[in-house]
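Example for tutorial group B:
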């Protein structure tokens, strides 16, 4: 009898141990974190940060609808990922911080790639190649190149590549939220110069042809890309975005989109 009881208890112990191990394995499987792309696809939408006040990149049309190159491009990328694009409008200084904290999945806002930013964020491959220009009032004869803004007053959004460029030449930068605000300060003589994308200058002048400003210098080509949170879990999302961009370039969609908003195809590096 004792032998049978011992055998029965041993069997119960074996069963209990097997169930315990199975449970642990299931728990470990359930606790394995999903990567960002999986999370986005399960959620059904991707959260895209954008300003909504920088034409022709991201702005509101006459009906109030959010539109622009980056808005259309972001929507197309979302479609390639099989999810909905949900844009959240925010000030420039909140965009990269929001991507880094996970508040936004990505940003589509003409973000320039720099080696310094690449230390804190993962980036897609470049999708546009633009150049920064130095603008002054039409009657300004003192500033003819970037070197001349040393000690001068300029205006740009805090943390932008344009603000960093101005500071690198010794300018004092006033923080602004929109290009319209910047040009107003320039025309009024409250700042000496400003730096922005050539395509943004051209778009502004198309809308306000009588504005008395001019370009006096131009910087090297900037690469525009999509920032993503710096994390191993973000890698598959970056790969999927790159695949989407490659397909949209290959079939000519991005080129046509660039011509629509910028008047030219900026999807290829200068000279290619």
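The residue assignment follows.
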């Amino acid at each position: 009898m004792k032998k049978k009881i011992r055998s029965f208890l041993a069997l119960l112990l074996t069963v209990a141990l097997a169930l315990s191990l199975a449970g642990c394995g299931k728990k470990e499987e359930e606790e394995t974190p999903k990567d960002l792309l999986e999370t986005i696809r399960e959620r059904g939408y991707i959260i895209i940060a954008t300003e909504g006040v920088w034409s022709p990149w991201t702005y509101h049309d006459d009906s109030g609808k959010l539109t622009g190159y980056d808005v259309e491009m972001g929507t197309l990328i979302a479609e390639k990922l099989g999810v909905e694009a949900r844009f959240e409008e925010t000030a420039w200084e909140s965009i990269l911080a929001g991507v880094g904290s996970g508040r936004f999945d990505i940003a589509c806002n003409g973000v320039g790639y720099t080696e310094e930013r690449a230390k804190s964020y993962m980036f897609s491959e470049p999708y546009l190649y633009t150049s920064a220009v130095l603008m002054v009032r039409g009657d300004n004869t003192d500033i003819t190149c970037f070197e001349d803004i040393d000690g001068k007053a300029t205006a740009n959004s805090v943390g932008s590549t344009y603000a960093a460029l101005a500071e690198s030449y010794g300018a004092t930068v006033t923080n602004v939220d929109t290009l319209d605000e910047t040009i107003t300060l320039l025309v009024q003589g409250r700042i000496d110069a400003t730096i922005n994308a050539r395509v943004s200058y051209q778009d502004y002048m198309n809308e306000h042809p009588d504005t008395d400003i001019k370009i006096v210098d131009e910087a090297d080509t900037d690469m525009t890309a999509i920032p993503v949170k710096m994390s191993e879990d973000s890698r598959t999302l970056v790969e999927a975005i790159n695949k989407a961009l490659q397909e949209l370039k290959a079939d000519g969609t991005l080129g046509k989109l660039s011509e629509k908003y910028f008047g030219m195809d900026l999807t290829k590096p200068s000279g290619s």
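The chain has nine helices and twelve strands. Compare this with the pattern of hydrophobic and polar residues in the output above.
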